[in-house]
Amino acid sequence: MKQKTKKYEFTITCQAEEIVSLVNQLLAKVKKFYPEADELLINLEIAIREMLANAVEHGCKKKKKATKFWQQPTIKVELYFKQAGIYIIVTDPGSGFNWRERDLVTMPVFTEKGRGLKIINKLADQITFNQQGNQIKVFFSL
């Protein structure tokens, strides 16, 4: 049975409080398409939480500008269902980071910071970044 590509887009402001609601919305979409994929749901939930937490913590460090036209920075999330699997893309408003210099494989021991990308890399089948480093794309095969 050939499955058509399905795309969903979400936007949240740079508020950590919005993460839980968005994670629940994303997981509900996945459950609808793959109701028997319990292990996949667990891995997706952890990865999505880490991606959004990184976006809020590192990509939303813009200071409020002294202008009446200032708008709250936002984070864009895209969810794609394709024949091969699920793609999740998170784009934050930050200037990005140099992902080429990051070790995504070796897990740190007992550190408070620096685990998020390594966890995502371990759970997902593929992880990529845009050139700027303010967008992460993960793929989970089915």
TrEMBL record:
PANTHER family: ANTI-SIGMA-F FACTOR RSBW, ANTI-SIGMA-F FACTOR RSBW-RELATED. The keyword Kinase applies. The keyword DNA-binding does not apply. The lineage of its organism: Bacteria, Bacillati, Bacillota, Clostridia, Halanaerobiales. It comes from the Bacteria. Transmembrane segments: none annotated. It comes from Halanaerobium salsuginis. It holds the Pfam family HATPase_c_2. This is Serine/threonine-protein kinase RsbW. Keywords: Kinase, Serine/threonine-protein kinase, Transferase. InterPro entries: Anti-sigma-factor_SerPK, HATPase_C_sf, HATPase_dom. GO terms for molecular function: protein serine/threonine kinase activity. Residues 35-138 form the Histidine kinase/HSP90-like ATPase domain.
